[in-house]
Amino acid sequence: MTSPPGQRRKPRRASTTTPSIEGEPAPRLPHERDESSDSQQSGPRDVIQQAHDDVERGLVDTDRGPPLDETYQRTREAADAEHPPGEAGAGAPAASDHAAAPKTDPPKR
User: Fold this and answer.
1) Taking a C-beta distance cutoff of 8 angstroms, is the pair 83, 89 a contact?
2) Is 38 in contact with 47 (CB distance < 8 Å)?
3) Which of 7, 9, 25 minimizes the C-alpha distance to 17?
4) Averaged over 2-17, what is the pLDDT?
């Protein structure tokens, strides 16, 4: 955005988020630190720069999340095949088990 000719643009002032409790300065909460305008002033962190450089060089992510997810799903499918939902020994009780349970009042204090 540019200012029309002959008009000067107002200089940007540095803003900070300063929480207070009853007029006294208070420490920022994590989201206040993350989202405040003055926390965005630093350059890229070393670890982020390294990640960028690694991707640029063609290195691949070595995160173990996706292989572990696949293993979990295979294990879960095998367990479900062995004990279908609603069968005794399956993980969670079937919905019909909840309906049959008698309702009791909480103990009185």
Assistant:
1) yes
2) no
3) 25
4) 59
Contact 38, 14 (CB under 8 A): yes
Mapping DSSP to helix (H, G, I), strand (E, B) and coil, where does residue 82 land? helix
Residue type, 37: S
Structure confidence by residue, pLDDT tens digits, 34-92: 777 777 777 778 998 998 999 999 998 788 888 899 999 999 999 988 887 776 655 55
Q: Which residues touch 15 (CB under 8 Å, ≥6 apart)?
A: 37, 38
pLDDT, position 21: 77
The residue behind tokens 């909460």 is: 29
User: The tokens 């960028």 sit on which residue?
Assistant: 52
CA distance 91 to 102: 21
Q: Sorting pLDDT into bands at 50, 70 and 90, what band is 96?
A: low
Tell me, what DSSP letter sits at residue 77? H
Q: How many CB atoms lie within 10 A of CB 51?
A: 14
* DSSP character at residue 57: T
